[in-house]
Every structure is written in C-alpha cells, then in structure tokens.
Amino acid sequence: MISLAARTEPLTVLLVDDDVLAVHLLDELIGMFSSARREAFTDPLDAVAWMERQVPDLVITDFDMPGLNGLALLRRLRSDPRTAEIPVLMITGIEDPDLRLAALDAGAHDFIRKPFDGHEVRSRVRNMLALREGQRAQQRRNEQLSLEVARAVGVIRERERETILRLARAAEYRDSDTHAHLVRIADYADLVAEGMDIGRVQREALSLAAPMHDIGKIGIPDEIVHKPGRLDPSEYEVMKTHTSIGHAILDGSSSDLLQLAAEIALSHHERWDGQGYPHGLRGEEIPISGRIVAVADVFDALTSSRPYKEAWDRERALTYLADGAGSQFDPACVTAFLERRDRIFVVRARVGPPAFAEP
Q1: Closest Cα partner for 22 from 89, 106, 110, 100?
Q2: Is 297 in contact with 315 (CB distance < 8 Å)?
C-alpha cells in the first residue's frame, strides 16, 4: 500500500476518454481552477498500465470506450486496495438512466452527461478533490497514530522483557549455571519453533518466556535444590511442585508474555504419553510451548554437568531425544530439534560452559 503521508506532490487527476477533444476540454477546465496535475489517456488500457505504477487522486472517465468501458474500468479501480476509495466521476453522452444507476452501484461518486457544462464540471471536480484531500489528511492522521501506537507498544514490550529477565535472574541466586542455561533454553526454543513453522512474533514471545520455565524453584527448599546427589522419592515429590509454584507466580497477569511464561512453567514436565506432571496431560493436550521447552530443557540438562552426574556427549543426548519421541516428547518437536542440530551445537558452544563433552 502506498503511504499517502509520504506524498507531498499536488493531487493528480486521471482523465480517460477516447474523445480527444473531450480530454483536451477537461484538461483546460481543470487547469483554470486547480493546481492538480493532470494525466490524460485516450486508450483506457494505457490508463490501466499507468495505474500499475501510479495512484491518482481523482479519476474522470468516459463510459463508452473501445477495449474497456467506463464501468469495467471502475470495477478495476474498486478491486485494487490502492484505488478502492479514490473518487470517480463518470461522463457519458449516452441517454440511459440505468447506466447512471449502474455506475453509482459500481462505486462512482458522481455522474454527468455530455455535452458537459464547464461550471458543472468545475463544481463537481472541486468537491471531489476536496473529498480526496480529506481522505489523504485522514490517512496521514491514521499513519501518525499507528506510529504512536507502535512506539507505545514497543515501550510496553521492553518493560515486559525487563520483567521477564529480572524474574529469571532470581533463579541465578539458587543455581550457578542458571544464567547460561536460561540463555540456551531461549535459543533452543526459538530454533525448534522455527522448525515447526511458528511465526516470528510467536517465536520471539516463546524465546522471551522460555527462560521462566523453572522460576518455581525459588519456592523449593535449598537442601533439595542444592542436594549433591539424586533426590529420594519424597524429595522428588517436593521438587515436582516447582511447576505449580512457577505457574502461581506468573499466572493472572494482563501481560500475554507472562501468561505464556506461566503456561510453560506449568507444562514443561508433562510427557507426550501422559506420564508427566503435574496434571498428566497427553499429546496435544500439552500446550505447544511446554512441548517445545521440554525438548530444549532436557537436552541442555543432559549436556550439562551436575553434582550427581557428568555431562553427556551431544550424540548420546540426541539419541536420547530421538528414542523419547512419541513417549516423553512430541515427535514433531524432536524432529525440528534434530534437523537443527548444527545450529544447536553452535548455541551450546557459544553460551558456556565452554564446550560440552564430545563423543
């Protein structure tokens, strides 16, 4: 769509009539009272070709023309979003009241007969140019408003981003590896979402919200979070509550981003086969955000050292994901992850610890 706000040149009147004399008279008449630029064509198909590159502000067209009559031209104008609202004045020498009605029904703003009266043409054209000036002024106001709204949305979005990052940083005080883990999870989630043809805006929101997946661990006792070995069954039950705690922290916000983060916090430990927690959701009952983050989170956990285990090499971790497709993980998420393994490895090497174990 052409921005009218950027157009500073005078208004343009397009004249279309196979009668050379009529075109000349109209051109002279309009030039006597208006500074509008005139473009004249005696072949309507030439006018159509011109409009592929330009947008007029007023079209004055004859009805009876070879190749393309005025009604057909009018319908073309109305079918093109660029010219759908442009004023159209139809002029014809045909004495037919049905033609007038047909022209008005097709979207003509006004209609006069030949031989036309110069004063009448002047009055009609002035009114229609004033209408177009009003349309352009409204378009400029709309575009300015759109810019202001975009700036306001940007400010809000940046505040949401800051809120997410500050909340996520709270976890750094509980786990020394959390910061790097959060960055990797965001990048992994974005890559998986890309492979699932999720749109750019949704991918951006997902990568911002994904680092909040384990925020609920701030409500888990230190002796469980920092235990240097595997958790016993009772401790594991306590640890599992971090999903519900995280959801409770984030839920209820008017921010779509925080709502998405709450969804991820609650669902990223659900399993495709229904054996996960906290609600035992199965398959596509699990939000797509949780299914994506589940794959990203497990891969990062497997390839990271923990007090109770060494980091797995990347091929072993990828095999684990592949074997878990259809049971622990959404198969589509695993496929998207595996197809982007080279880019995954780049992220894992770039965002410390320095390098994971090689096969």
Answers
A1: 89
A2: no
The count of C-alpha atoms lying within 13 angstroms of the C-alpha of 354, restricted to the half-sphere facing its C-beta, is: 0
Q: How far apart are CA 217 and CA 192, in angstroms?
A: 25
Q: Between helices 233-240 and 242-250, what is the axis angle to 10°? A: 20
- Of the candidates 212, 200, 240, 205, the one whose C-alpha atom is nearest the C-alpha of residue 224 is 240
Beta-bridged to residue 59, according to DSSP, are 14, 88
CA–centroid distance for 28 within its chain: 48
> The tokens 């110069």 sit on which residue?
118
Burial 240-258 (b: 16+ CB within 10 A, else e): bbbbbbbbebbeeeebebb
* pLDDT tens, the chain, 359 aa long: 444 444 456 899 999 999 899 899 999 989 888 889 999 999 999 999 999 999 999 999 998 898 899 889 999 999 999 999 899 998 887 777 788 788 888 888 888 888 888 888 888 899 989 889 888 888 888 888 888 888 887 787 777 777 777 776 666 566 555 577 888 999 999 999 999 999 999 999 999 899 889 889 888 998 998 888 889 999 999 999 999 999 999 998 888 888 999 999 999 999 999 999 999 999 999 999 999 999 999 999 999 887 777 889 999 999 999 999 999 999 999 999 999 999 999 998 887 654 444 44
Dist. CA 129–CA 13, nearest whole Å: 9
Tell whether pTM > 0.85: no
| Residue 91: strand pairing partners | 62, 112
Contact 65, 20 (CB under 8 A): no
- CB within 8 Å of 220: residues ≥ 6 apart: 238, 239, 241, 242, 245
Strands (E), 63-153: 88-92, 110-113
**Residue 95 CB coordination number (10 Å):** 7
